[in-house]
Amino acid sequence: MDLAGQVLVVAFYGALLALTLFVAVMLVIGRAASRPLLRRPPPDPEVDPADLGLPAEPVTFMSRDNRTTLRGFWIPAPAARGTVVLCGGRHGSLDGDLPVYGPLFYGAGFNLLIFDWRAHGRSEGKYVTYGVYEKEDLLGALAFLDAAYGVTRVGVMGLSMGARAGLIAAALSGRVGALVCDSLLVRLDTGMARVIARRKVPVRLGRMLARWTLVVASFRVGGNLFHTDATYWAPHVTGTSVLLIYGEEDALVLGDEIEAVFAGLPGAAKALWRVPGAGHRAVYARQPEEYEQRVLDWFEEHLRYDTP
Q1: Residue 6 has what pLDDT?
Q2: Short-list 238, 247, 252, CA closest to 277
Q3: Which of 5, 181, 269, 281 is most buried, judged by most C-beta within 10 A?
Q4: What is the mean pLDDT of residues 84-91?
Q5: CA atoms of 71 and 7, how far apart (whole Å)
Q6: Up-side HSE of residue 241: CA atoms within 13 Å toward CB?
């Protein structure tokens, strides 16, 4: 082999080595970045429903994937006007939401099912998946309500990631009559990019890192995290009345994103309440009385229910 050929061979193997090192480094970065995204969060301090005056029954049921056991509480109201399923966010456990939403719905005459997502609180599961498998958890909850209590149509109260799973489940099931989405997590990649940008990372690089992290995370959980974007699922939500609640200082969701979801929802039974000065999941703290009234009025007006 002449000198020119030797140079080409060396260049080829050098480029191959550089590419291999680059891929290895990116995999390490992606795995490290995806670890806090997917891991089970620490639970909130445990709350006994009896201390809140709630006649709760512990319940256990399977996610629709039939691989994950979920746990929570069934809180039946006397002469119930309907049934609401509460879907919490990505952090903590049901104990963080129970003191607010338990008395709210029970006091207004609604049965309430509240449960921990997979990889949260009392439930089994290794990874948080931002709707990929949480929708299966919610669909399992709806099947459980039908089998155990004869409830075939419900309202869903979703918070952040729970709103995301609730929207997807409403698109896949005819059992969700009314849906309230508080701080709907619309897109994971853009939300993550904004979090990264707060650490002084250049915007373009932050977007690349966010998307790469989601690619690696998708491989780790065995499902496509990009396929849970609310803008994709919104047009498929038919037969469900949807109220979107959005704080205009939300650091994870842009106003244009929530407007796109609202525009994509079919039908006239939809509403968007934008609250100036409120951040992600902070509308209740800023305007608690109006929040409670709007939520209860929505379920009262739009929920067509079966009661046990």
Answers
A1: 57
A2: 247
A3: 181
A4: 95
A5: 64
A6: 18
- Which residue has 């897109």 as its token pair? 187
Instruction: State pLDDT tens for residues 100-149.
Output: 999 999 999 999 999 999 999 999 999 999 999 999 999 999 999 999 99
User: Taking the domains of the chain in order of start, what are their residue ranges?
Assistant: 39-187+229-302
Distance between CA atoms of residues 37 and 41, nearest Å: 9
Residue whose pair of structure tokens reads 């149509």 in the numeric block = 153
Structure tokens at 24: 């290895």
Asked if residues 85 and 91 have their Cβ atoms less than 8 Å apart, the reply is: no
* pTM across the whole model: 0.90
Q: Which residue has the tokens 């968007």?
A: 272
- C-beta atoms surrounding 103 within 10 Å: 16
Q: How far apart are CA 188 and CA 253, in angstroms?
A: 9
DSSP-derived secondary structure for 145-188? HHHHH----EEEEEETHHHHHHHHHHHH-TTEEEEEEES----H
Each residue's pLDDT tens digit, 238-282: 999 999 999 999 999 999 999 999 999 998 799 999 999 999 999
* CA 51 to chain CA centroid, nearest Å: 28
Confidence of residue 307 (pLDDT cuts 50, 70, 90): very low
Rounded CA-CA distance 291/137 in Å is: 26
CATH homologous superfamily of 39-187+229-302 equals: Alpha/Beta hydrolase fold, catalytic domain (3.40.50.1820)
Report d(CA 9, CA 7) in Å as an integer. Answer: 5
